[in-house]
UniProtKB/TrEMBL annotation:
CDD domains linked to this entry: MECDP_synthase
Sample GO molecular function, one term: 2-C-methyl-D-erythritol 2,4-cyclodiphosphate synthase activity
NCBIfam families: ispF (TIGR00151)
Protein source organism: Acidisoma silvae
Pathway(s) of this molecule: Isoprenoid biosynthesis; isopentenyl diphosphate biosynthesis via DXP pathway; isopentenyl diphosphate from 1-deoxy-D-xylulose 5-phosphate: step 4/6
Name used for this protein in its record: 2-C-methyl-D-erythritol 2,4-cyclodiphosphate synthase
The encoding gene: ispF
Annotated site, Transition state stabilizer, chain positions: H45, T144
Residue stretches making up the 2-C-methyl-D-erythritol 2,4-cyclodiphosphate synthase domain: 13-165
Cofactor: a divalent metal cation
Residues at which 4-CDP-2-C-methyl-D-erythritol 2-phosphate binds: D19, V20, H21, H45, S46, D67, I68, G69, T143, T144, T145, E146, F150, R153
Function recorded in the entry: Involved in the biosynthesis of isopentenyl diphosphate (IPP) and dimethylallyl diphosphate (DMAPP), two major building blocks of isoprenoid compounds. Catalyzes the conversion of 4-diphosphocytidyl-2-C-methyl-D-erythritol 2-phosphate (CDP-ME2P) to 2-C-methyl-D-erythritol 2,4-cyclodiphosphate (ME-CPP) with a corresponding release of cytidine 5-monophosphate (CMP).
Residues that, per the record, bind a divalent metal cation: D19, H21, H53
Entry annotated with the keyword Metal-binding: yes
């Protein structure tokens, strides 16, 4: 489909993602591709990078291509302790396969501890590198839940993400 000027018509697609993992001792804490010093890490089938998982789901959602569990089933042993960077690279490949461009992504980590803000620049740089986009298109921020609920009790960490993707309007 083209505009009257002959340029291809473009559509903005948005997607959201949400994930939660349990905190436990004896695991490294990997958030948005960065290992963060902390007395506990997140449990999961993979490295349990809750930030990357939410971001992948936002991308898959924007493309209407299911969710991370569809592409990397937790029933498959090959994803045991997998580096979640691999999942995000796959999501980036799906954007490219659709002829799309990631306009921006915004990740919010929800936890009482550790403090995320000091690590946010490294997380933004890592996510941007994995996605092959300038760091200016990425945002990582954090909030507590004012000590309420599982995050407030430091039992787990949640993440939510939103993305905007520009794609050719072909459907
Ligand atoms: N794990 C966290 C949580 C919060 N922050 C920063 O603190 C600010 C205030 O958080 P509230 O939940 O009290 O609103 C928040 O805006 C973040 O800048 C953080 O770095 N790490
Ligand atoms: C990442 C996958 C990989 O098997 O497993 P987990 O690390 O358990 O993470 P989760 O977000 O619970 O599920 C998605 C799975 O695809």
């Amino acid at each position: 489909m083209t505009t009257t000027s002959g340029l291809p018509s473009l559509a903005t697609r948005v997607g959201t993602g949400f994930d939660v993992h349990v905190l436990e001792t004896g695991r490294p804490l990997v958030l948005c591709g960065v290992t963060v010093p902390h007395e506990q890490g997140l449990a999961g089938h993979s490295d349990a990078d809750v930030g990357i998982h939410a971001l992948c789901d936002a991308i898959y959602g924007a493309l209407a291509e299911g969710d991370i569990g569809r592409h990397f089933p937790p029933s498959e042993m090959k994803w045991k302790d997998a580096d979640s960077a691999r999942f995000l690279r796959h999501a980036a490949e799906r954007i490219a396969a659709r002829g799309g461009i990631l306009v921006n992504a915004d990740v919010t980590l929800i936890c009482e501890q550790p403090k995320i803000t000091p690590h946010a620049p490294a997380m933004i740089a890592r996510l941007a590198d994995l996605l092959g986009v300038p760091a200016s298109r990425m945002s990582v921020k954090a909030t507590t839940t004012e000590k309420l609920g599982f995050a407030g009790r430091r039992e787990g960490i949640a993440a939510q993400a939103a993305v905007s993707i520009l794609v050719p309007l072909s459907e």
